[in-house]
Amino acid sequence: MGILRHFPTHPAVIVPITGKTRPAIREAAVAIAVTAADLVEWRADCFTELDDMPEVVAVARRIKEITGKPLIFTIRSTAEGGLGQLSAEEYAFTTLRVAIDALDSDDYVDVELHHPGTAAAMKLRHSLRDLAGTIISHHDFAGTPSPDDMYGLLEQCAALGDGAVKLAVTPHCPSDVAALLQSVARFTERYEVPTIAVSMGKLGVASRAVGHLFGSCATFATLGEASAPGQLSYHKMRRLLDELS
């Protein structure tokens, strides 16, 4: 299920859409469609009509139609750097409804490890077959946990889901970036779980370009507004990856 796999020579490139309105989202999708991006992430927490379920489903479908690429549906909470303020029930319902009504088996829903709605969402998700895959994620905007703690967070993510896992942290020194890469290498050497690992901000840019050499299966790049600190432009990222391959 899903296309996320670890290839030591090249990571999947994910381009986010952060538009607030349907026209802005459509414009971003059209721009992504003509690139060789591997996946699109729709940051639905940025959408001003997130409370309109039929509209959310329609927009998700339209992004897939325009881009022709697998979609990651994400509602990033304010606790993890996003704009989403849904209750536990709303988070679980919206995530599942989009997975059922708009996504295919090669798509993904991002589910935050520590969101209050995650337990309910995953319980219902496991009762349904042939849904989109999951990316169980954790984002730390305060700092970089110890290598053992990061390894433990990745294990918690893997235990909860049946797809990919994601860990994004904030470095305060170069050794924090090295610790993140060390942790993902250790984790992927033991577990065959598609893993996305990012050290955010300007200091962590190297992790976005070379993370695949340490086991990370994907990286994010932008064609417009970044969805997280430190994201490079799509074209710059492609040039870097081509030079490293």
Features:
245 residues; alpha/beta; TIM Barrel; 9-stranded parallel β-sheet; 9 strands; globular
Question: How would you characterize this protein structure?
Answer:
The protein has 245 residues and is an alpha/beta fold. It has a domain at 12-136 and 200-244: TIM Barrel (Alpha-Beta Barrel). The chain contains 8 helices and 9 strands. A 9-stranded parallel beta sheet has the order 7-6-5-4-3-2-1-8-9. Helix 5 (147-160) links the parallel strand 5 and strand 6. Helix 1 (22-33) packs parallel to helix 2 and helix 2 (53-67) packs across helix 3. The longest helix has 17 residues, at 174-190. The model has no long low-confidence stretch (mean pLDDT 92).
Write the layout of secondary structure elements.
Layout: E1 12-17, H1 22-33, E2 39-43, H2 53-67, E3 71-74, H3 88-101, E4 108-112, H4 118-127, E5 133-139, H5 147-160, E6 164-169, H6 174-190, E7 195-199, H7 205-210, E8 218-222, E9 232-233, H8 234-244
Provide the structure class: alpha/beta
Return residue spans where pLDDT drops below 50 for at least 5 consecutive residues: none
Helical region count?
8
Oligomer: single chain
Order of helices and strands: EHEHEHEHEHEHEHEEH
- CATH level 4 superfamily of the domain at 12-136 and 200-244: Aldolase class I
Largest sheet: 9 strands, parallel
Give the terminus-to-terminus CA distance: 26 Å
**Highest-level CATH class of the domain at 12-136 and 200-244:** Alpha Beta
* Architecture per CATH nomenclature, i.e. the level-2 architecture of the domain at 12-136 and 200-244: Alpha-Beta Barrel
Q: What Rg, in angstroms, do the CA atoms define?
A: 17 Å
